[in-house]
Design a protein that fits this description.
The complex is a heterodimer. Chain A contains 7 helices and 8 strands; from the N terminus they run H-E-E-H-E-H-E-E-E-H-E-H-E-H-H. By secondary structure, chain A is of the alpha/beta class. In chain A, the strands form 2 sheets. A 6-stranded mixed beta sheet of chain A has the order 5-4-3-6-7-8. Chain A has a two-stranded antiparallel sheet with strand order 1-2. In chain A, strand 3, helix 3 and strand 4 form a beta-alpha-beta unit. The longest helix of chain A has 26 residues. The radius of gyration of chain A is 18 Å and the shape is globular. The two termini of chain A are 21 Å apart. Chain B is globular, with a radius of gyration of 17 Å. In chain B, helix 4 links the parallel strand 3 and strand 4. By secondary structure, chain B is of the alpha/beta class. The chains are: A alpha/beta, B alpha/beta. At the A-B interface, helix 2, helix 3 and strand 4 of A face strand 1, helix 2, helix 3, helix 4 and strand 4 of B.
Chain lengths: 217, 192
């Protein structure tokens, strides 16, 4: 397992960017420290794009998300030979003061490429900025943290393509005895609880008629 | 007299021409140091276009081959795209230090350096060289040996002096003098 080998997945107590606590953390910013891993991860994205998206949707631009998602998005852009764009986290107060770097034209089909998805809220924000110019329909991530991401995205007409589901990673690690049973239980309970919390949020925000039940795993 | 150019020289002038075509913006711009400039170079316009990126990567790889390097490092988010792709092709690990801060959530720079401590910094554009120096200091305090820095475009605003006085050999791939900035007169006629 690539992520484990490079120490990109850690167990303990972490605070996510949403300020929520998590008993595990994935840091894909580590991937470029291991060029063969970055190359392999890039190929995995390319496979998904070629098999699941390109047959039904022409891609004009690949959008990367700084900081963690930009290196891998660049690699995917180069491998697919599709131009890259990215939304700056902070607008520069010098030079061109642009929000979106790269060239994007109106009605371009933009594929959003990110490292991972939790609830999907930051992905949705990113897509909204890109939708000011082009069309955003598909999102590819390496890891789905299974905390309501695909469901929340589908309400915004975004389809998630994830390379790995986090509970599969945990199950794999447990089978290898790479994590103690207690850690496995803690992280599985955490995922289950936050999935339910996310589903409840959906009930509140969109009414009962639109609920899509989380798929049983 | 026939001038024979080496492949590297050809790539350099190809990159300079690409910058003029895609990445050069004329007007009045604020520079990061607060000064004013009549033009601005946005290397994101090169790194986001696969063919242009490939040329920039080949040129950088050619310079890296001449150096004794274990790892490469990006000093800012603007350089991350080229550093990641160069690292992948050169089979060198790449490190990301933005404005002097390592970007990692929990991993220590010391650990990422591992046994390979010779680090070359690769910048997109250099002016004063401050951003590169900041990254070099952070890397050095984590135990890295930083002897060299490559800049895709050096605008000759002091980076060479600053870096060399701090023990860093400075290697610009394209320099301000290689870029043909059209005169304002020509620009005015373009808009007529």
């Amino acid at each position: 397992m690539l992520l484990l080998r490079i120490g990109a997945i850690r167990f303990g107590e972490f605070t996510l960017s949403s300020r929520r606590k998590s008993p595990y953390y994935i840091d894909l910013r580590l991937a470029p420290s291991y060029p063969d891993v970055l190359d392999r991860i890039g190929d995995l994205y390319v496979d998904v794009v070629k098999n699941e998206i390109q047959p039904k949707w022409k891609i004009d631009r690949i959008a990367g998300v700084p900081t963690a998602g930009l290196p891998v998005a660049t690699v995917v852009s180069q491998k697919l030979r599709v131009p890259l764009i990215y939304v700056r986290k902070e607008k520069k107060d010098y030079g061109l003061s642009k929000t979106v770097e790269g060239v994007v034209e109106s009605n371009d089909n933009i594929l959003l490429v990110d490292d991972l998805i939790t609830t999907g809220h930051s992905t949705i924000q990113e897509a909204e900025i890109l939708r000011e110019t082009g069309n955003v329909k598909h999102v590819v991530v390496l890891v789905d943290r299974e905390q309501g991401g695909p469901e929340n995205l589908s309400h915004e007409e975004l389809e998630l393509h994830s390379l790995i589901k986090i509970t599969n990673v945990f199950a794999y690690l447990k089978d290898l005895d790479a994590i103690p049973p207690k850690t496995y239980e803690t992280v599985m309970n955490y995922v289950k609880a936050s999935e339910q919390a996310s589903a409840q949020q959906v009930v509140v925000t969109s009414g009962s008629s639109q609920i899509t039940n989380p798929k049983p795993s | 007299m026939v001038q024979v150019k080496s492949p590297t020289q050809n790539l350099r002038s190809t990159l300079a021409r690409l910058i003029e075509e895609r990445a050069l913006f004329l007007g009045e711009f604020k520079s990061p140091s607060g000064g004013r400039s009549s033009y601005y170079i946005d290397m994101a316009m090169i790194f986001t276009e696969p063919t242009s990126l490939e040329i920039a990567v080949s040129l950088t790889l050619g310079e890296l081959e001449k150096l004794n390097v274990d790892k490469i490092a990006s000093p800012s988010v603007e350089a991350d795209p080229i550093v990641a792709v160069v690292g992948m092709h050169a089979k060198l690990g790449s490190l990301f230090i933005h404005q002097g801060q390592p970007i990692y959530a929990y991993e220590k720079l010391e650990h990422l350096l591992g046994r390979g401590k010779k680090v070359t910094i690769i910048a997109d554009v250099t002016l004063s060289g401050n951003t590169v120096l900041l990254a070099a200091k952070t890397l050095r305090s984590a135990g890295a040996e930083v002897w060299t820095a490559i800049s895709l475009v050096d605008l000759e605003k002091g980076a060479r002096d600053l870096l060399e006085s701090n023990g860093i050999q400075f290697i610009p791939l394209v320099e301000a003098k290689d870029i043909r900035v059209p005169e304002k007169r020509e620009m005015a006629s373009n808009t007529e």
